[in-house]
Design a protein that fits this description.
Strand content: 5-15%
Radius of gyration: 43 Å
Number of domains: 3
Order of helices and strands: HHHHHEEHHHHHHHEHEEHEEHHEE
Helix content: 55-70%
CATH class of the largest domain: Mainly Alpha
CATH topology of the largest domain: Rhopdopsin 7-helix transmembrane proteins
Shape: elongated
Length: 581
């Protein structure tokens, strides 16, 4: 084909200038291309995985398309005009394919299948084959100063773009259905930005060609639609930056602030291409300098914030690992205690039985001087058995293996039985033990009677142990329509409502200082003066009792006016257990 068009070059250039101002061409193409290249470069520098490369290549091919289109709008050489017009279709087709590729890789977290790639190559291959032939550009229209499309663009490229758009929608729907809740949000945002870019890009070109070919709108206004369509790329890039900042996608940091600053600087700087007034140039220059200065300050601030967050994240991860190790050690400890306690309980029970038989004279009459030592052995063995039982209970509580047998439980009957047992002990110590029960019978409650009785027994026993003079009062009463909070093992708390039975064990003993009240029910916790009065305590009884009561949706707590002023331990149990108990 000959291009002997020297006499027509100036006319062609004037037609191009009159159709759309060159300043608008620069402003619609160059800033978008540069910003997309910057974001693509940031992503690939921070993420060398497939998804990073795809973002980079989308930016590259869009920039190639933009710069090629700029040449088409500003060139006055019909030969170069034909060349760039013929290759621009390659960039368009690859852009559509890369966007589908990006959504699939981003959604699935892995590369697409081999057959997907073969299919895309098969669809793109005709374009590469037809570009250098007359099937792409048939000739150059000297009158309108533009190449004339042939079969490739109108009958293959445009239908292919439409097919890619439909394919894109199918991919989006499929990936959203498969993704997790958090991933779905990211896929939707990325797909929205990408689809908006492709759809506007495709439709603006299609509408422009249709309007010009059918003389529906002036050439100038028709081409302006194509110019405005290019602003869909900054929208796509803005959504991409938001995904990176909001969801930390693509393993990229700082890109939101950097993209914002660089994009702002480029947009302000690009205005120099079409400002004609010197005053406006000065004002735009001042704005440009301020944008650069504040941008540098913002990026430095964000970098410092990211560094601190990364250090905090690193420390959090280390703490999580340490917590896992501590949890494993704690579980191993609980398992060891459980095994050891089971092994200890058998010989201790045997010792108790044999000592009891010896004291009863089953093996013959014993010398009087042996009775006291054997009684002390029996008492010490009893304390060891209780210690083993406490350790087993702690192990069961912390491993979640504590079992409860709920049934009808009469609190009055249990308290009366315990009163009969402990009244002898109280009398022996010179203390009183009073029982205060209501005139009307208390309602039966749903509880594990054996474990609840054990907790009440332990509280009465402690009250007598730590009281030197005076005595202990055990009181039970019924309260209706109460509200109370239960904080279970592990920190889970819930609010309860309903009727309760309240049991109080009050003593005139040593009392509890305010500083020790918050820790009294902790594991192995004992008051400062308790070891002086009773050296055999382990600090496990109250811990076990608290967990037993709270596991039954009840509450246990202590009230004391201070050291030497006595104390009151209170148990509150619901009359009816919640359905999930």
């Amino acid at each position: 084909m000959g291009f002997n068009l020297l006499t027509n070059l100036k006319t062609c250039y004037d037609i191009i200038q009159d159709t759309v101002p060159v300043s608008m061409v620069y402003y619609s193409h160059i800033p978008s291309a540069i910003v997309s290249l910057l974001i693509g470069t940031f992503v690939i520098l921070k993420n060398r995985k497939m998804v990073g490369w795809l973002v980079f290549f989308i930016a590259v091919f869009f920039s190639l398309w933009s710069f090629t289109d700029v040449i088409l709008w500003t060139s006055s050489n019909s030969e170069s005009y034909m060349f760039y017009w013929s290759i621009i279709v390659i960039f368009e087709a690859v852009l559509f394919m890369l966007n589908i590729y990006l959504v699939k890789v981003f959604s699935e977290g892995k590369d697409v299948s081999f057959w997907n790639k073969i299919t895309w190559l098969f669809l793109l291959l005709p374009i590469f084959i037809m570009v250098p032939t007359r099937l792409n550009m048939s000739h150059f229209d000297v009158v309108n100063c533009e190449p004339i499309n042939n079969f490739l663009y109108d009958h293959y490229a445009l239908p292919l773009y439409g097919f890619f758009l439909i394919w894109f929608i199918v991919v989006i729907v499929a990936e959203i259905k498969k993704g997790t809740t958090e991933k779905k949000k990211q896929i939707k945002l990325l797909s929205l930005g990408s689809f908006f870019f492709l759809f506007v890009f495709f439709v603006s070109n299609l509408v422009t060609s249709y309007l010009i070919d059918n003389s529906i709108m002036s050439v100038e206004n028709s081409y302006k639609i194509e110019m405005y369509g290019l602003f869909s790329m900054p929208v796509f890039l803005g959504i991409l930056a938001y995904i990176i900042v909001k969801f930390k996608a693509f393993d990229v940091k700082l890109i939101g602030a950097q993209a914002l600053v660089y994009g702002l600087v480029i947009l302000i700087g690009s205005q120099f291409f079409f400002i004609e007034s010197n005053t406006n140039r000065i004002l735009n220059g001042i704005t440009f300098i301020l944008a650069v200065g504040f941008g540098i300050f913002l990026i430095k601030s964000v970098k410092e914030e990211v560094r601190r967050k990364e250090e905090l994240q690193h420390m959090t991860e280390q703490l999580a690992v340490a917590n896992d190790e501590l949890r494993k050690l704690d579980n191993a400890k609980s398992e060891f205690i459980s095994i050891a306690s089971h092994q200890l309980r058998t010989p201790l029970t045997s010792i108790k039985g044999y000592v009891s038989l010896v004291l009863e004279g089953t093996y013959g009459e014993i010398a009087p001087y042996l009775t006291d030592p054997l009684s002390k052995i029996y008492a010490s063995n009893e304390r060891l058995i209780q210690l083993v039982e406490d350790l087993l209970n702690v192990s069961r509580i912390e491993s979640g293996r504590m079992e409860f047998m709920f049934g009808k439980f009469k609190v009055e009957n249990a308290i009366k039985d315990l009163y009969d047992t402990f009244s002898v002990i109280a009398k022996g110590k010179g203390l009183y033990l009073h029982l205060d029960l209501p005139q009307n019978p208390l309602p039966e409650i749903e509880a594990d009677g054996s474990k609840t009785r054990e907790v009440i027994s332990n509280l009465i026993d402690n009250a007598l142990k730590y009281t030197k003079r005076g005595g202990v009062t055990v009181k039970a009463e019924f309260l209706n329509n109460q509200t109370w909070n239960v904080a279970h093992l592990g920190g889970k708390a819930e609010t309860m409502n309903g009727d309760i039975v309240k049991i109080s064990i009050s003593d005139t003993g040593m009392g509890v200082p305010d500083t020790e009240l918050p820790y009294l029910f902790s594991k192995f916790s004992r008051g400062k003066d308790t070891s002086r009065l009773h050296v055999t305590g382990t600090g496990l009884g109250l811990y076990v009792g608290k967990n037993i009561i709270e596991a039954q949706h009840g509450r246990i707590y202590v009230e004391s006016e201070g050291s030497g002023k006595g104390s009151k331990f209170i148990i509150e149990l619901p009359v009816v257990q919640p359905k999930n108990a």
